[in-house]
Amino acid sequence: MTDSGYFIAFEGGDGAGKSTQVRHLVAALEAAGREVVVTRQPGGTTLGSALRDLVLHGEAITPRAEALIFAADKAQHVQEVILPSLARGAVVVTDRYTDSSVAYQGAGRSLGAQEVADLQSWAVGGLTPHLTVLVDVDPSEGRRRRGGTHDRMESEADAFHTAVREHFLAMAHGAPERYLVVDGSARAEEIAAQVLQRLAQEGLL
Ligand code: TYD
Question: Looking at the 3D structure of the chain, how many domains does it have?
């Protein structure tokens, strides 16, 4: 981990409202005069965008191939975007990171959380966020908010999304010093205030 920058990940199920929270946080950090680099996974690099199309909209991808594509996206992303940004002192805010793979591929696809966590850790060279905000939402509420269009992950059954949610919560409860869990069904402004309060405690704001 670099000394100068600060690395924040937002995680949660589909339709949890992460992207809205990322926007709120970026605005607050910029207002406080910080350089902010905002990014998302999969995607965020040229290779990542191609991998994103493949993995979310491609066909006949086996679970292990899926896990490797998500890992390749992150390997590129960390090297190309995240590490250089942290090295010059920026705050990096990412919409999803390694925990998504542990929850979706490890728990959702039943590949094994530890194996997927090891794969992800190797892909990102062990880079861990200072803080991960888990926006927790019931899968049925997430489905309702997403509306009609569904990618490969979103089309999965409720049981898949429930396994994903439970695994996110288990990771967060296992390391409270590195996580903030917020209730995704609360008002967006209320959630944003909780995130800022925690970052103030961490000394970032
Ligand atoms: P995206 O459109 O970015 O969804 P959201 O707005 O909910 O973040 O789609 C990303 C999808 O890919 C989402 O369903 C979660 C899934 N995913 C994984 O399965 N593994 C991963 O490592 C990552 C980063 C995402």
Answer: 1
